[in-house]
Amino acid sequence: MFRLPAALGVAIAAVSLSFAAPAAATTWNAVDDFSATQSTLAAGVWSYGWDSGSGFEAYTTNAECFAGLSCWQSPGPNLAYQVPTVAKNITGGLITYAGTVVHPDDVLNLHPGAMAGDWNGQPIESVLRFTAPTDGTYAFDGYFQLLDRWPTGVSILAAGSPVFVSGAATWATEAGPKSAFSGKVALAAGQYIDFRVGPNGSYGSDSTGLSLTVATVPEPASWAMMVGGFGLIGGGLRRRTAVRFA
Predict the structure, then answer these.
(1) Could you give the angle at which helices 220-245 and 6-23 cross, rounded to 10 degrees?
(2) What are the pLDDT digits (tens) for 209-224?
(3) Is the separation of the CB atoms in 215 and 182 below 8 Å?
(4) Is 1 a member of any domain?
(5) 157 with 90: CB under 8 angstroms?
(6) Which of 22, 96, 127, 132 is deepest in the core (most CB within 10 A)?
(7) Predicted TM-score of the model (pTM)
(8) How wide is the angle at C-alpha 201 spanned by C-alphas 200 and 205, nearest 5°?
(9) Domain housing 55
(10) Beta bridge partners of 174
(11) Judgement on whether residues 186 and 212 belong to the same structural domain of the protein
(12) Total domain count for the chain?
């Protein structure tokens, strides 16, 4: 009966552990994780806010602004009339509202506020922020789509890179075409990446859907350990064979 040396068995066990560690990636889903009770670090990572050119500010108020729609907004000066919003469809199916918006349940609505020049000379962006809970590399993947049948053109940034969207929603039946994006970024704990929708012209019909997942990426050192371990196993097997058949 063929038996492995005890030391080689320990090596295999160690490699098995090193292989298992990087396989268990953690994934966050912006739609599934949406919180109506906290606008900062929902699910430990997501924050909902707006930026008029002075930096990110978390939304302060959540309400059902339309039937079936859980909305984060801010009641600050003039903002009640400029409607920057991050909102989730909580019905479990497609809904329509405001006379022109078509909102599936698998995207958040990031609605910008104001036109350029309406607020401190700056447009108001609606922002979904991901904050890294630990040091590591994070992969993000998602898409934007226009939810209004009369969009005026939005300015979209995903982790600092522009995303171009086209088309429009077909009233009462479906949202616009999906514009996909993806990428990877190394973050220290507490660092963040933003996904932003701002106005480009008039803001009034610029409801914009966002689907987004972020996942941890196994570190190269973990994979190097695994490969090195398999080399150790191979060398041990060769030595064992040489001794047995010499």
Answers:
(1) 160
(2) 999 999 999 877 554 4
(3) no
(4) no
(5) no
(6) 127
(7) 0.80
(8) 90
(9) 26-217
(10) 170
(11) yes
(12) 2
